[in-house]
Amino acid sequence: MSSEVKSGKRKDISDADNSDYNTSEEGGPTKKPKNSGRTTLKDLVASINSLITENKQTNTTLTELKAEIQGVKDTNSSIDRKLEDIRTEIETKVSNHDGRLADLENRVDQITGSLNSSTKVTDSLYSEVNKINLILSGLDELINETTEVLIDELNKMFHRLTGCNYSVDHAYRIGYQNGTSPRRIKVRFSSLALRNKILLEKSKLPPGIYLNDDLPPAIRKAQGLLRAKKKELLVQNPGLLITVDWKKLSLKSDSGNYNFIDGQIIRTDHTHQASLQPSSSSRTSSLQPNQGFLAKRL
Predict the structure, then answer these.
(1) Rounded to whole angstroms, how far apart are CA atoms 293 and 287?
(2) Is the pTM for the entire model greater than 0.85?
(3) Residue ranges making up the domain that contains 223
(4) Last residue in a domain, options 152, 183, 214
(5) Are 266 and 259 in contact (CB under 8 A)?
(6) How many domains does the chain have?
(7) How far apart are CA 97 and CA 37, in angstroms?
(8) Burial level of 290, CB count in 10 A (0-12/13-18/19+)?
(9) CA atoms of 88 and 201, how far apart (whole Å)
(10) End position of a domain, from candidates 74, 98, 129
């Protein structure tokens, strides 16, 4: 037994001793290097120093990034302040502009009101000064026509109208020759009574010749547009009943009412259609003054 134990111990010791050896191809043992597979203290120190260096570099990079981020924040803050200053400046200028615009609008309204008043006064003065005049249109224009020849021709025409001898005080063509139609003639009479008597006989004038009051240009334009609108409505409906108020510059018909407003003919009864729907007892009271014509028909 002692020999087995001894032999066993020797075997363990032999196995332990053999762990430091490799078996060669020839079957003989070779001794392993002592430091094979093991980390030395020097290697550990070198690794630690490398990690410390990398950590310092990382910290340096982080510090630089923080500084860069702070710079961006400072830049953004500066931009925000500038934008706020610009917004405040714009709001101030817009507010000032609105105030100036309101002042200008008030001045325009005042000037427009003054202009309208002046126009009315001018038209009134024009009508007063020219109330003994008449405008004749459609009379053929002679070649090299003189004032004397024109007045003589007018006197003959007015004599045929009334059977009396009248003398025109003055007459002359107005406007520019266009080669397509004769120019209109402004005729001045010696008295208002003579002028009115001639005007009463204008229905006896030859076809194509017309005699009208000497009106201011704006009113003449308005009446021309009213005539054109009347003609247009009659073409659409030949049997339409139409009434024209030349003084108020308005036109009334079964198909609608029209007024001369701001240089054009505008239909003015659209906004009152709803007021025409109630019972007959309330229809007349809901109409505007210039709609009395429709009220009577209802």
Answers:
(1) 10
(2) no
(3) 216-298
(4) 214
(5) yes
(6) 3
(7) 87
(8) middle
(9) 75
(10) 129
